[in-house]
Design goal:
Elements: E1 2-7, H1 15-25, E2 29-33, H2 44-48, E3 53-57, E4 65-69, E5 73-78, E6 96-101, E7 107-113, H3 123-143, E8 149-154, H4 178-189, E9 193-194, H5 195-199, E10 208-209, E11 221-222, E12 225-229, H6 231-234, E13 237-242, E14 258-262
Parallel strand pairs: 1-2, 7-8
Antiparallel strand pairs: 1-14, 2-4, 3-4, 5-6, 6-7, 8-12, 9-12, 10-11, 13-14
This protein binds one DNA strand of 18 nucleotides through residues 9-10, 13-14, 34, 36-37, 60-62, 116-118, 156, 170, 173-175, 208, 210-215, 222, 224, 254.
DNA sequence: ATGCCTAACACCGTTAGA
């Protein structure tokens, strides 16, 4: 079973780019982030035509996550428990969608779009840290189920210096703050395995390159899209592939797909 | 030191991303 995560930076603006990759790779499960549309505007039919079941937790203009699966999705949950942590005092951002991928060996999968948190020292950064704390609390509950579990998405955290081409350039950034990195470590310490680090771990496994200043051409990348696995899922991990070439195509997202292969 | 680029929405600029 291959499980993908991809921040697509607007599913409608980039539909042909996204569908092209799905036709080539046909992952069994995919977590999409930054779909940037409400549920009714998500192009579900296009994915259903490729054989996917679709669950969407959308939002107008910003954020929004979706889950795609070749087998039916069950026990769908929209939103992260705990409704505090609003950045703007309004309704909570659409950043979390969880479901059980059915089959002979079911896997619980969550699509995650963590807040960016910039600039540091503002309410946005505080929101990011509160969101990480809420994710930690929920992950603790999910791990108690002792199931195969995959938390996949754009975590907006650079875990280690090796996860940036130029770590010094990120020192003042919310993605590389000690508090952000510490909260990510705390997640792993609950008993979650960073799939890329377990399967490969080579420095330079970047998943994001900014649109600006020729970041892609200069390989000024960072690794911020992650798949975190429970022990029951990590035991089945066969490999992780970062689809780096996708960044060089026409109309690319600034993120590329990351795919984890689990046995059976 | 700042912007570089891209998208959405509504306006012809602003907000957000990372």
């Amino acid at each position: 079973m291959r499980i993908a995560t991809w921040n697509v930076n607007s599913v409608n603006a980039r539909l042909e780019t996204v569908l092209g990759w799905f036709r080539e790779e046909a992952p069994d499960v995919a977590c999409l982030q930054e779909i940037k549309c409400v549920d009714e505007k998500f192009p579900a039919e296009a994915f259903e035509a490729l054989g996917y079941n679709v669950a969407v937790h959308g939002q107008k203009t910003y954020n929004g996550v979706a889950l795609l699966s070749k087998t039916p999705l069950e026990d769908v949950r929209k939103g992260l428990p705990g409704d505090d942590g609003h950045a703007d005092g309004g309704e909570d951002h659409a950043r979390y969608l969880e479901a059980v991928v059915s089959g002979p060996r079911p896997v619980r999968v969550a699509a995650i779009y963590l807040p960016n948190g910039n600039p540091v020292g503002t309410e946005k950064f505080a929101y990011k840290l509160r969101w990480l704390a809420r994710l930690n609390a929920h992950a603790r509950e999910l791990l108690a189920l002792e199931e195969p579990l995959v938390l996949a998405g754009d975590f907006n955290v650079i875990p280690e210096p090796d996860d940036a081409d130029n770590p010094a350039a990120w020192m003042g950034d919310a993605l590389f703050q000690p508090e952000s990195r510490g909260a990510f470590r705390a997640l792993k310490w609950l008993g979650l395995t960073d799939a890329y680090m377990a399967a490969d771990g080579a420095p330079g496994g970047y998943t994001f390159w900014d649109y600006q200043a020729g970041a892609w051409q200069r390989n000024h990348g960072i690794r911020i899209d992650h798949l975190l696995l429970s022990a029951q899922a990590a035991d089945r991990l066969e490999g992780v592939t970062i689809h780096r070439d996708v960044r060089g195509r026409d109309k690319p997202s600034d993120h590329v797909p990351v795919v984890a292969a689990l046995s059976i």
